[in-house]
Structure to design on (300 residues):
């Protein structure tokens, strides 16, 4: 019941904004240091984490767990793949700058329209995720009732992969590091992060996942996209192990989504801290009219 109430409250919290964005903003509120239950419903304190070495499976660290965002300064601002760049500015090519301008002025947040966020956006999300590791596959489960399945069975990339939101993902182990190499992405269907930064079909994402101990999982990600960026984007962050029994839950993004017809283009107001949230989206875009309909699709 708590989960349902959270979704319902987030959905109607701000007219004209999406459930996904509301959940994201909730997830990025700092945890209550007093431990009295305030702050984010996804908060986890370092002092409460279990101690000990990472578990192992088939000779490798077992990355399985329910992973909650860390609120340490090095892991913020959430939702922004440019968090470690000066003033959060990414190294755009002219085509990349034009693509960002188009997103800001003409495209509704794809996740608000129930389009899969894909990579690298899901790795920058402020929401928890669940990871299940098997003998030769790993699966990432997200709060959007979305998943990705990553084989590490010796497969190689195909010559011409079918474009997809997460790309064609090939996993492998380098010692205790789980490496995911992804190519073959859709273009103009998703944003690279919460702030409308773009990516093209030339994007290549390499993720390096490690579990240094029982209570933490760490990602180092490199995004190479020569069409939109002049140099690779390096992104890193850490998640904390959730409480026993924590797991992702089902929800339907598009069911009773009263916000979709009212959404305007762009990510809303981005604060000086490089982060956005429903509290920064003011004034809200006006509701659509006959002469000025809402933008509710992204061009192919």
């Amino acid at each position: 019941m708590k989960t349902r109430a959270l979704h319902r409250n987030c959905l109607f919290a701000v007219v004209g904004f999406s459930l996904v964005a509301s959940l994201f903003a909730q997830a990025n509120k700092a945890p209550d240091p007093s431990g009295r239950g305030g702050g984010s419903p996804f908060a986890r304190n370092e002092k409460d984490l279990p101690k000990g070495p990472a578990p192992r499976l088939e000779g490798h660290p077992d990355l399985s767990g329910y992973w909650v965002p860390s609120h340490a300064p090095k892991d913020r601002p959430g939702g922004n793949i440019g968090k470690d760049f000066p003033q959060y500015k990414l190294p755009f090519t002219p085509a990349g700058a034009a693509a960002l301008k188009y997103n800001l002025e003409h495209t509704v947040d794809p996740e608000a329209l129930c389009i899969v966020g894909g990579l690298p956006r899901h790795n920058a999300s402020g929401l928890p995720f669940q990871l299940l590791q098997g003998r030769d596959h790993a699966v990432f489960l997200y709060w959007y009732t979305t998943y990705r399945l990553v084989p590490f069975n010796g497969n190689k990339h195909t010559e011409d992969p079918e474009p997809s939101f997460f790309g064609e993902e090939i996993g492998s182990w380098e010692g205790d590091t789980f490496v995911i190499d992804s190519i073959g992405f859709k273009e103009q269907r998703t944003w690279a992060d919460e702030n409308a930064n773009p990516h093209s079909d030339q994007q290549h994402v390499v993720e390096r996942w490690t579990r240094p101990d029982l209570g933490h999982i760490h990602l180092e990600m490199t995004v190479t996209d020569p069409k939109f960026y002049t140099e690779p984007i390096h992104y890193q962050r850490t998640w904390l192990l959730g409480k026993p029994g924590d797991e992702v839950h089902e929800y339907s993004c598009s069911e009773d989504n009263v916000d979709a017809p009212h959404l305007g283009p762009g990510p809303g107001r981005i604060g000086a801290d490089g982060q956005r949230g429903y509290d920064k989206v003011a004034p809200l875009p006006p509701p659509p009219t006959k002469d000025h309909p809402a933008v509710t699709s992204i061009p192919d």
